[in-house]
Amino acid sequence: MAESFATGGVGDAQLRYRDDEPCAQPAVTVEAFKGQTNATAVRLESGEDARELLAMLDRLTLVVVHFPAFTDGRGYSAARILREAGYAGELRAAGDVLVDQIRYMRRCGFDSFAPDAPLDAAAVERALGFYDHVYQPTVDGQTPVWTLRHGGDHG
Amino acid sequence: MIILTGNDLKTGDVIWWAGETNWSRHLSDAVDAGEEADAVLQREDAARRVNAGYSVEAEQTERGPMPLHIKDRVRASGPTVRQDLAIDTNIPIEKA
Amino acid sequence: MYQYDKYDQSLVDSRVAEFRDQCERRIAGEMTEDQFKPLRLQNGLYLQLHAYMLRVAIPYGTLSGDQMRMLATIARKYDRDYGHFTTRQNIQYNWIKLEDAADILQDLSTVEMHAIQTSGNCIRNISSDQYAGASAEEAADPRPWAELLRQWSSFHPEFAHLPRKFKICVIASDTDRAAMRLHDIGIQLVENDAGELGARFYVGGGMGRTPMIAPLIREFVSADDLISYCEACLRVYNRYGRRDNKYKARIKILVHEIGAEEYKRQVEEEFAHIKTLNLDPPRAELERISEFFAPPAFDAEAPTEVDLSDPDFRIWHDQNVAEHKNPAYAIATISLKPVGGIPGDATADQMDLMADLAKQYSFDECRVTHSQNIVLPHVRKADLYALWQKLDEAGLAPANLDLIGDMIACPGLDYCSLANARSIPLAQKISQRFADQQRQKELGELKLKISGCINACGHHHAGHIGILGVDRKGVENYQLLFGGSGAEDVSLAKITGPGFTEDGVVDAIEKATDLYLAQREEGERFVDTYRRIGMEPFKEALYG
Predict the structure, then answer these.
(1) What is the b/e burial string over C1-38, where b = at least 16 CB atoms within 10 angstroms of the residue's CB?
(2) Could you tell me which of C480, C528, C468 has the C-alpha nearest to residue C508?
(3) Separation in Å, CA of C98 to nearest CA in chain B
(4) A71 at the C interface (CB within 8 A)?
(5) Would you state the CATH architecture of domain C134-290?
């Protein structure tokens, strides 16, 4: 089923914030993933429900979340839902991924990026470096201001 | 006729295409872009001589080119309720 | 008032640096306008009909004298000596240069202000009751809750690319001065049977092209669950709000299409999950914030009587001064609606004066109202006369609060690139036609609201009399609507019939108010008479 193979396999991530070996398999569609018990990488389209993957997290090593347009914010919720459920594998944002969105994506749990147009590494570093603090706890482990103010050290 | 307008990228000023690579603050300097409109806009946008440019249907009048739509006439004149801030108080806002 | 700590300041400073970098990249051509637009919008910067426009946030409409003075400084230094107070309790400047934008944000940051998320498809500035902390009838001051929501929603990474903009309002009394149920989320603070304060949630209201009154989604959300519950409301919207059609993308359409019950079910399910994640701040955080909103040190010796012997002062006092929870104090509204003026506009000099008056007479605090006026919330009754004299000298004492002269008008086609018709010249004509004080007073409370296009920034759906400007074959035309309200008697106005020219609509309003005067029963406002007798007699008067 050729159409079940989408982009997002080995080496496709331009930026990767993980030390483990990248998944060697191509990412398949959610439908295909459900039927292929040996697949370990899946690609989630922006309209698809991330919760469909929750029963199968133990056999996933890569989830590619596709952003058809950088203004389509559904992928941010998808990422958090996966991380909140304990998914610890690679979570990749692919598609219309721009430098000014990377920081929020990182906060929502993405740890690799496969943008349609390559990003300037220095610009990404700069964009990630502006803020020292966050108000809200998310899944990225940063201690929120709300905790810092009251003597705690993690959220 | 088709005339072109947009904003200066840095200042935001309303500007009108005055031929070649020239843009003017004044509607009276606008020239007919005819069938080149899209190409000129694309070129000028890429060169950042204009921001958010678009083409405007206009007619040639004794006061010079005049946009057919009221929005672009207000754009060329300035806020009608602040004549002290107007660019050109001679532009008829209501349809002639 | 809330004061930043090092963390709040650091976050705002970071934003200035980030936006400076983004502006430089845009000017250098490293970004297209399409890529830059959402970034500048999330910093309040629009490209409008004549120039860039900057919308500065005034969180829950509260600001100090120093902050008001900075708004005047911005007007002088970077704009054309004036600003426009908006129906969302913010201020906007009409003549901003992109190359100055970061410097302006930097200047604002020195007085703990910003323009973060004042536009774009994100959670916008939180609005609230302009009488908060001063009104006798509120369950509590709603602003600590609003400030907590401000912090939660600022730089929220999951909700920065929502299907559409998202507006939250927090009030704490049964009287609604903030159009609470016409927000995406309207919150009313209430006490439960145990005497605990909590939030009643209404979700899915809004104006725009499909106005909706928000249905009740949950009777009581405790302070300990506030953030988790908001996360749940927003996550359901972010995932399932429509993205195929910009005009159907607001949460009101989602709630309407799936039904309030189904939306509530999904939110409760999401909430049950989110509550396990420990996202809510410690209770001590709300307590910390609340301390900033402790009542000021009211003068216990101050007299409770006002000398009303000056008849002109008395007119202003009767109209623009409201009861305060402390009997020696009053709430004074400064109307930005002089006869023939531009509703909501204030000059830099007027802003400076209001800053001084706030400092001198109102514990250094002022408020912006959704009706585009300024409130001094804590004025000693003994100071009201001196305050009025100073306001009157500066043209800031129109005695028309909630009268026909106190109309809301969006900037309209004079400034706005979305507008179809001009709002301001019409507002000016109406205010001139009804300029007579006696006549206005005779007509009583009459909320007139004008929008220059269907996006409804001028709240025309919520007007006792609403006016909507439309484009009829390139000519400005105005539809008239009756029977709306943004208050606790919330309702949506209905169109009377065919539209009018600018002069025609002024005449039509006069015919309608004449009919009201002829038909009204004891104690009825215009909108009450309309509700009792219905549209038909009005149609007859207008078109018969």
Answers:
(1) bbeeeebbeebbbbbbbbbbbbbebbeeeebebebbbb
(2) C480
(3) 5
(4) yes
(5) 2-Layer Sandwich (3.30)
Name the CATH architecture for the domain at C6-109. Alpha-Beta Complex (3.90)
Task: Confirm whether C134-290 and C408-543 share one CATH topology.
Answer: yes
In a domain, A139, yes or no: yes
Q: Do chains C and B touch (3 or more CB pairs under 8 A)?
A: yes
C362 part of contact set with chain A, CB < 8 Å: no
Cα three-residue angle A102-A107-A111, rounded to 5 degrees: 65
The answer to whether the Cβ–Cβ distance between A76 and C22 falls below 8 Å is: no
Residues of C in Cβ contact (< 8 Å) with B69:
474
Largest Cα–Cα distance in chain C? 67
Q: Do chains B and A touch (3 or more CB pairs under 8 A)?
A: no
Contact B12 C476 (CB under 8 A): no
Q: How far is B9 from chain C (nearest CA, A)?
A: 7
Please report whether residue B95 resides in a domain: no
B92 belongs to a structural domain:
no
| Residue A155 resides in a domain | no
Helix (H, G, I), strand (E, B) or coil at C53: strand
- Touching status, chains A and C (3+ beta-carbon pairs under 8 Å): yes
A132 vs A111, C14, C15, C40, C370, CA distance in Å?
19, 8, 11, 21, 34
Which has the closest alpha carbon to C374: C389, C383, C385, C356? C356
Check CB contact under 8 Å for C33 and B81.
Answer: no
Q: Which residues in C lie closer than 8 A to residue A103 (C-beta atoms)?
A: 157
Residue A153 lies inside a defined structural domain of this protein = no
Which residue ranges make up each domain of chain C? 6-109, 134-290, 311-393, 408-543
Instruction: Please report the ipTM that was assigned to this predicted complex.
Output: 0.96
Q: Can you give the CATH number for the domain in which A118 is found? A: 3.40.50
Range of the domain at A52: 2-148
Does residue A154 sit within a domain? no
Residues of B within 8 A of C52 (CB-CB) are: 7, 12
Pick from B12, B70, B85: CB nearest C474:
B70
**How many whole angstroms separate alpha carbon C95 and alpha carbon C92?**
10
pLDDT tens, residue order, chain C (544 aa) = 999 999 999 999 999 999 999 999 999 999 999 999 999 999 999 999 999 999 999 999 999 999 999 999 999 999 999 999 999 999 999 999 999 999 999 999 999 999 999 999 999 999 999 999 999 999 999 999 999 999 999 999 999 999 999 999 999 999 999 999 999 999 999 999 999 999 999 999 999 999 999 999 999 999 999 999 999 999 999 999 999 999 999 999 999 999 999 999 999 999 999 999 999 999 999 999 999 999 999 999 999 999 999 999 999 999 999 999 999 999 999 999 999 999 999 999 999 999 999 999 999 999 999 999 999 999 999 999 999 999 999 999 999 999 999 999 999 999 999 999 999 999 999 999 999 999 999 999 999 999 999 999 999 999 999 999 999 988 999 999 999 999 999 999 999 999 999 999 999 999 999 999 999 999 999 999 999 999 999 999 999 8
- Supply φ then ψ for residue C133, to 5 degrees: 80, -5
Asked if A77 contacts C238 with a C-beta cutoff of 8 angstroms, the reply is yes
On chain A, the residues whose CB falls within 8 A of the CB of C30 are: 123
Could you give the number of structural domains in chain B? 1
- Which residues constitute the domain of residue B10? 2-85
The CATH classification number of C311-393 equals 3.30.70.3340
Domain count across chain A: 1
